[in-house]
């Protein structure tokens, strides 16, 4: 029946045919990219060829045949940035990080033409001088990274004022690590608090901030990462944290923050890294720290004034693999056996406290799987009287420090097998 209908033309079958049309990038944008390339004295991407489709070039991202992204990260580019860059008016992301513009300035004008730019990364590329005023007018920017690797670019720096932030109401991530701001922390913190309440990442390590830092900076509701470490002249204290805090990474090391750790620190339920090392904190560890169930790294070393017992509940945090509590004034007897069931513990440093560690007797016939997978164990100056017997079964330890204790008697022969 179907055959007869087909033969009589009474049944029509429609078969969809897909036609793929490969578009071309705009001639003006291809020319702009080639002119940009001419400004580089070293450029290793060999697909940037005149007469070809620039949307198919390496590191070029297009949408509907308009260039919306340039990802030139880590291409060892040398030279200067040609103003033709600003003819790419549809750019949303621009990444020049990890290149070699050593001592060159960022182009001073033209940034206003990149009104759609939302992500800008110029980190670790050796730019110097002032951050152009035009960048501060890019109101759609959500991510800015101007950080430096101090050891590679320690003689290079930007000049940035807190007014840089006044139009940045969309900003979610700000990275200024090792940028020499040399200004009052209060000015920057106040500018951040007043300019954007949706900030998720603030990384300003080693920025030469000094003076008082207001507590409100810790209370930005959307903040996931806060790192203002390595600003030794910056001081303040911690606030009472609310239950709706969203911090995942909290790093204050090598600052002059002081005071007691608030009991509300237990409200940081999403916290994965807490680094308050080399500060001036004092008092006892709050019992609420047992609520930090997602914590992976805890570094409270070198505060010198933290005291009292080390809560056994810390060793019940199953995800906590790195614990650094050295050089404080923790005291009382601590049972080493507390770590017995903490199988994922990788590094433990309790050195230079006023602790008295009790030895942990290992069961004969035990195997390494019965103990934590420690790779680093530092128990210097912990009033040990004998070498802990459980070490006999720790074949993964690469670093062991038992110095300045009260160990006496014969050294067991198995000690030489540790780490093998």
TrEMBL record:
InterPro entries recorded: Leu-rich_rpt, LRR_dom_sf, LRR_N_plant-typ, RLP23-like
Domain Leucine-rich repeat-containing N-terminal plant-type, first and last residues per copy: 27-63
Keyword Disulfide bond: no
Compartments, as annotated in UniProt: Membrane
The keyword Repeat belongs to this UniProt entry's keyword annotation: yes
Signal peptide: none
Cellular component, GO annotation: membrane
Ranges in coiled-coil conformation: none
Membrane topology listed for this record: Single-pass type I membrane protein
Protein keywords: Glycoprotein, Leucine-rich repeat, Membrane, Repeat, Signal, Transmembrane, Transmembrane helix
Name of the protein described by the UniProt record: Leucine-rich repeat-containing N-terminal plant-type domain-containing protein
Source organism of this protein record: Dendrobium thyrsiflorum (Pinecone-like raceme dendrobium)
């Amino acid at each position: 029946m179907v055959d007869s209908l087909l033969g009589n033309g009474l049944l029509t079958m429609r078969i969809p045919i897909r036609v793929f049309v490969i578009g071309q990038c705009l001639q003006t944008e291809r020319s702009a990219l080639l002119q940009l390339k001419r400004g580089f004295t070293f450029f290793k991407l060999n697909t940037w060829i005149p007469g070809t489709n620039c949307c198919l070039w390496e590191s070029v991202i297009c949408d509907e045949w308009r260039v919306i992204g340039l990802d030139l990260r880590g291409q060892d580019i040398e030279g200067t940035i040609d103003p033709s860059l600003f003819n790419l008016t549809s750019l949303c992301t621009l990444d020049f990080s990890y290149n070699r513009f050593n001592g060159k300035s960022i182009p001073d004008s033209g940034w206003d033409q990149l009104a759609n730019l939302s992500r800008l990364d110029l980190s670790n590329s050796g730019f110097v001088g002032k951050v152009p005023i035009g960048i501060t007018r890019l109101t759609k920017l959500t991510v800015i990274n101007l950080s430096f690797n101090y050891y590679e670019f320690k003689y290079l720096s930007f000049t940035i004022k807190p007014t840089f932030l006044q139009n940045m109401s969309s900003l979610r991530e700000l990275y200024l690590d090792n940028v020499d701001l040399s200004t009052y922390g209060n000015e920057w913190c106040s500018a951040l608090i007043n300019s954007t309440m949706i900030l998720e990442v603030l990384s300003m390590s080693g920025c030469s901030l000094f003076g008082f830092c207001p507590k409100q900076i810790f209370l930005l509701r959307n903040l996931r990462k806060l790192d203002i470490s390595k600003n030794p002249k910056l001081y303040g204290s911690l606030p009472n944290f609310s239950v709706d805090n969203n911090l995942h990474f909290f790093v204050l090391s090598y600052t002059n923050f002081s005071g007691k750790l608030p009991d509300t620190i237990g409200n940081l339920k999403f916290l994965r890294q807490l680094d308050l090392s080399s500060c001036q904190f004092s008092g006892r560890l709050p019992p609420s720290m047992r609520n930090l169930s997602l914590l992976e790294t805890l570094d409270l070393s070198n505060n010198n004034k933290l005291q009292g017992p080390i809560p056994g509940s810390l060793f019940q945090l199953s995800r906590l693999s790195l614990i650094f509590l050295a050089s404080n004034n923790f005291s009382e007897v601590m049972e080493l056996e507390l770590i017995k069931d903490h199988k994922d513990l990788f590094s433990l440093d309790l050195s230079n406290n006023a602790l008295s560690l009790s030895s942990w007797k290992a069961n004969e016939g035990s195997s390494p799987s019965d103990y934590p997978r420690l790779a680093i164990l530092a128990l210097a100056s912990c009033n040990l009287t004998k070498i802990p017997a459980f070490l006999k079964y720790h074949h993964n330890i690469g670093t062991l420090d038992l110095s300045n204790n009260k160990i006496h008697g014969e050294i067991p022969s198995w000690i030489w097998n540790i780490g093998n």
